[in-house]
User: Which sequence fits this backbone?
């Protein structure tokens, strides 16, 4: 399961990068249009922002699952690993 979580995390990072690019592109579009086109671009920007928030939640869940999948080392075992 660990490998699948890393692959899912990589995919989530890729999606976040695409979202950032779309966010920038739409912001540039908003600065150069007016009227109905600006309204449509604003709605697209809102959609991108909501998608970004969802992706951050998904990444938090992936991190939580990864932490649950990793066994916790305590006491002497932890010291041995550090040494």
Assistant:
């Amino acid at each position: 399961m660990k490998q699948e979580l890393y692959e899912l995390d990589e995919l989530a990072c890729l999606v976040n990068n695409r979202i950032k690019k779309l966010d920038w592109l739409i912001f540039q579009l908003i600065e150069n249009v007016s009227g109905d086109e600006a309204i449509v671009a604003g709605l697209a920007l809102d959609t991108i922002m909501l998608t970004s928030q969802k992706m951050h939640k998904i990444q938090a869940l992936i991190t939580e699952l990864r932490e649950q999948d990793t066994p916790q080392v305590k006491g002497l075992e932890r010291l041995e690993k550090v040494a």
The chain has one domain: 2-82. The longest helix spans residues 36-69. The chain has a mean pLDDT of 84. Helices lie at 2-32, 36-69, 75-82.
